[in-house]
From TrEMBL:
Protein name: ABC transporter substrate-binding protein
Organism: Streptomyces justiciae
Domain of life where this protein originates: Bacteria
Organism phylogeny: Bacteria, Bacillati, Actinomycetota, Actinomycetes, Kitasatosporales
Cleavable signal peptide: 1-31
InterPro entries from the UniProt entry: Peptide/Ni-bd, SBP_5, SBP_5_dom
Pfam families (alphabetical): SBP_bac_5
Domain Solute-binding protein family per the UniProt entry, residue ranges: 80-416
Entry keyword set: Signal
């Protein structure tokens, strides 16, 4: 079936998903008369923790360009200067030089003490930000513009970790209460000036910004969980930027308003290698050969996904460039073997994927049972190896922007998310090498070698890489389309 032409984000671009606004935006231009239009944004998920940067709400702060980190990531996941201008490693300790001339939105100056305060608060929080799970980290000021970050074990990913929005650097005023309050406390080109619970937020351009001045006078955000309502706001002109347009609604929009952003998220069939029919590598190979991923992309995702070539998809453009053929086990005949596939209802497409896989595997000679529940009621059984196979939509880069942590958690013998129950010495060795290799080209090659080791076992069959659909109104210029969802409205974004 030939699909209509679509705007698909080039995978080398590092930009972020936008959000759509539904509801009334009256008064959106009032804060900057004669100085252009404010950007009206609709976000999919309301704040869960009062916009505390120690929670997933941190990603909203970074998408609005109001809170910044010491380091940012380029398209390949390598560290670049942000609030820190340079850094160097000496064993377990990293030294960071703090940028001069930066002020917080309350007028106070960025210095080493502010960095120590923010990072220490994060490192000692309970629970810790995800990026610091299993990481013991201490921060000290060497002088007014130099800090050292020391970890319990030597860690080549410290700069990448410090790029996480959950480790944003905020002014002292943010830490005066029991929770971290980011209002008026960031360093970005936009100042967060008000938050209306889980309904809306407003940001104004910060004229004292250390970098390029924002082209828009401000941002007006509304939180609109309903996908149909978000799409309707784009069609009606009530929203300038729309986050996560549902596939079912995308077809109703002008294709010129829609951009599909490759996400670092892979829909994968995990096979139980320790118990049941899939202990046999030949039967795992038979399952792999039976799966027609292209029909799943066309039938379930309406063509708005990418057929998987490996575990890492087009959101990591270097993966395809480094990947080579993998030697796999020959397939055996299923001979009517009964298998049970589990998945969950929380992601609407997964039950449909399961039904399609059931048909494909039965055609190949398996007998297939499905067990589908809410994720909260099925995760424990999946991790305990209660299913022969499990369908999961899995993020392949975590907060560091690096896939080595995902590969280790899912496929190492002692991995915390090893649904395949895989225990393979060659895989473990490849994963250990990847985790210990310094950042850059050498680490990327080690990661692809680890991916190849996993794929050779057929413990996991990657089927497709997901995209997120973003809506940008005709007058929007410079909206970010970021596979990592760290950026949305930047200093370059404005509405004509």
């Amino acid at each position: 079936m030939r699909l209509p032409a679509r705007r698909l984000l080039p995978v080398t671009a590092l930009t972020a998903t936008s959000a759509l606004l539904t509801g009334c935006f009256s008064g959106a231009d009032s804060a900057a008369e004669g100085d252009g239009k404010r950007v009206r944004v609709a976000m999919m998920q309301p704040p869960r923790s009062g916009l505390s940067p120690l929670s997933d709400d941190a990603f909203k702060l970074s998408r609005w360009s109001t809170a910044e980190t010491l380091v940012k990531l380029d398209a390949d996941g390598d560290a670049e200067p942000a609030l820190a201008t340079k850094w160097q490693q000496s064993g377990r300790t990293w030294t960071f030089e703090i940028r001069d001339g930066v002020t917080f939105h309350d007028g106070s100056e960025l210095d080493a003490a502010a960095v120590v305060r923010s990072l220490t608060t994060a490192a000692t929080a309970s629970p810790k930000p995800r990026i610091l799970d299993g990481v013991e980290l201490t921060v000290q000021a060497q002088d007014s513009d130099t800090v050292t970050v020391t970890t319990a074990d030597e860690d080549p990913l410290v700069p990448q970790r410090l790029s996480s929005p959950q480790l944003s650097i905020l002014a002292a005023k943010a830490y005066r209460g029991k929770t971290v309050n980011p209002v008026g406390a960031g360093t970005g080109p936009f100042e967060l000036v008000s938050v209306n619970g889980t309904s809306s937020a407003a940001l104004d351009r910060y004229d004292g910004y250390w970098g390029e001045q924002a082209k828009s006078p401000g941002i007006d955000v509304k939180f609109v969980p309903d996908g149909t309502a978000r799409a309707a706001a784009l069609r009606s002109g009530e929203a300038d930027i729309v986050e996560a347009v549902p596939v079912s609604q995308a077809a109703l929009l002008d294709e010129e308003l829609v951009t599909e952003v490759p996400m670092p998220r892979t829909n994968t069939l995990y096979l139980n290698t320790s118990d049941g029919p899939f202990r046999d590598a030949g039967l795992r190979a038979a399952a792999r050969e039976a799966i027609d991923a292209e029909s799943i992309v066309e039938g379930v995702y309406e063509g708005r996904a990418d057929v998987a070539e490996g575990l890492l998809g087009p959101a990591l453009p270097w993966a395809a460039e480094l990947r080579s053929d993998v030697k796999r086990t020959a397939a055996e005949k299923p001979d009517g073997r009964t298998i049970t596939i589990g998945t969950f209802t929380d992601r609407a497409e997964l039950p449909e994927v399961a039904a399609t896989l059931q048909q494909q595997l039965q055609k190949a000679g398996f007998k297939v049972k499905l067990e589908i529940r809410e994720y909260a009621n099925i995760e424990t059984d999946a991790l305990a190896g209660e299913f022969d196979a499990f369908i999961l939509s899995r993020a392949t880069v975590l907060d560091s922007g690096d896939p080595a942590a995902y590969l280790y958690s899912d496929f190492a013998s002692d991995g915390s998310f090893n649904i395949s129950q895989l225990a393979d010495a060659q895989v473990d060795a490849a994963l250990k090498k990847a985790a210990g290799t310094g950042t850059g080209e050498a680490r990327r090659k080690a990661v692809i070698a680890a991916e190849a080791a996993v794929l050779a076992t057929d413990a996991a069959i990657p089927m497709l890489h997901e995209r997120v659909i973003q809506g940008d109104a005709t007058g929007v210029v410079g909206a970010a389309h970021d596979p990592r969802e760290r950026q949305l409205v930047t200093a370059d974004t404005y509405v004509k």
